[in-house]
Amino acid sequence: MVRITVRVRPGSSRPGVGGEHDGALVVRVSARAVDGQATAAALDAVAAAFEVRRPAVTLISGASSRTKVVEVEGISQEELERRMCIGSRKT
Question: Which secondary-structure segment (H or E) carries 40?
Fold first, then answer.
């Protein structure tokens, strides 16, 4: 299990995971930052990007902030970095 910092960009016309902002992984979602919709979409996107089930991704902090800390279960730090590298080649 690993913890990562993500920076959510709600209302994006091109949803996806990739890039960096102040050391955080950028997660672009089309959902607006209303009633937690962007947060839920960001957690879904992180799960899809790292090929884990949605319940394996837990919000640790930042429920009402664009910068969030999430915990991803079922994956090692090395595997997470490998998947990030592979994902960056796809775009």
Answer: helix 37-49
3-class DSSP state of 62: coil
Global confidence as pTM: 0.87
Give tens-digit pLDDT for 23-69. Answer: 899 999 999 999 999 999 999 999 999 999 999 999 999 999 999 99
Residue entry with tokens 């930052």: 33
Total of domains in the chain: 1
The span from the CA of 42 to the CA of 28, in Å, is 7
CATH number at residue 34: 3.30.1200.10
> Domain limits at 39?
2-90
**In 3D, which of 3, 1, 10 has the Cα closest to residue 38?**
10
